[in-house]
Specification:
This protein is an alpha/beta fold and 279 residues long. It has two domains: 14-31 and 173-221, N-terminal domain of TfIIb (Single Sheet), CATH 2.20.25; 36-169 and 223-278, Rossmann fold, CATH 3.40.50. It contains seven helices and 14 strands. Helix 2 (37-52) packs across helix 3 (68-76). 34% of the residues are buried. Bound molecules: S-adenosylmethionine (SAM).
Length: 279
């Protein structure tokens, strides 16, 4: 959502033979605007190695959508296996057509995609469980988030880690629309309806492609959880330790993309961090 990603590839605009109108590929734009799967899997692997002093093998991507991370995990090492879990068949079908199909047969065998619920206690165990792009913010009640964390704990291997990203900062309470221009499209992150009583807020992603702004391509109805709440709940469900990885600052004051373990953060308009729990 808030992550800036470098973009070199061109956005393919498809022209429907029937209507002659320009169509757009919402998952392709989403991936270019907010995902950085190749870099994320390297960070995730290195974090596991740093904490556990050994190499991880099985990666589970909860709320996987088009399972871009799971695919990159497979490519990173021939011993890697991954499991993607999502309720929605639409992004799963997209991932199968656009990502899974591009893996070699041997790589495809190491990958599993499950159309299912992250709350399912029979999900396969993994060395790493990741819930990225703030997807767990969909759990608005504390007991719901706690049940999810408890299931992640239960379905994690003995030496496993559970990794989440989280965002915050004074700006995330304002009704603002952030805009980021890319080569062939513009990405908008629209924050609305922050409610200080419930901490709930609604977010939209819009895109402008070929001169036309397409509104509310993705909408998220979330509760904004704080790092301290997340860590407290992790410990309540049994995690032995939790760590926070905070982004360094570039010369211009923006995030530099390097995350290191910290005991304290700094107050700023907008930040992203990772919270990592150890079983
Ligand atoms: C914000 S998208 C994140 C997609 C992907 N993780 C990413 O990094 O871009 C949230 C996804 O969570 C899925 N989802 C929501 N609740 C879920 C649940 N209880 N179990 C599994 N998937 C769920 C939705 O279908 C959606 O694809």
């Amino acid at each position: 959502m808030l992550k800036g990603v470098g973009h070199r590839k061109k956005v393919r605009r498809k022209v429907s033979k029937k209507t002659g109108k320009t169509q757009f590929d919402k998952y392709e734009l989403y991936s270019k605007a907010v995902q950085s799967a190749e870099n994320d899997v390297v960070f995730i692997r290195n974090t596991y190695k740093e904490l556990k002093k050994k190499a991880p093998r099985i990666f589970r991507e909860d709320f996987c959508g088009t399972f871009a991370l799971s695919t990159e995990w497979i490519k990173l090492d021939p011993k890697h296996q991954s499991i993607g879990v999502d309720l929605d068949p639409e992004p799963i079908a997209y991932g199968k057509a656009h990502y899974l199909s591009k893996l070699r047969p041997e790589q495809q065998k190491r990958m599993k995609v499950i159309e299912g619920n992250v709350m399912d206690p029979s999900l396969e165990k993994a060395d790493i469980i990741a819930a990225m792009n703030f997807s767990y913010f969909c759990f608005k009640q504390r007991w719901m988030l706690k049940n999810y964390f408890a299931n992640a704990y239960k379905t994690l291997s003995k030496d496993g880690i559970f990794l989440l990203d989280v965002f915050g900062g004074s700006q995330c309470y304002d009704a603002i629309e952030d805009r980021m221009k890319h080569k062939d499209f513009t990405y908008y992150w629209d924050q609305t309806n922050f409610d200080p009583v419930t901490n709930n807020a609604v977010f939209h992603i819009h895109f402008r492609v070929g001169g036309k702004k397409i509104e509310q391509v993705f909408t998220y109805d979330w509760r904004l959880w704080s790092i301290s709440e997340i860590r407290e709940i992790m410990h309540e469900v049994g995690f032995a330790k939790s760590h926070v990885y905070w982004e360094g600052t570039a010369k211009d004051g923006s995030g530099d993309g390097n995350f290191t373990r910290v005991d304290h953060g700094e107050s700023c308009e907008s930040w992203i961090a990772y919270v990592v729990a150890e079983k």
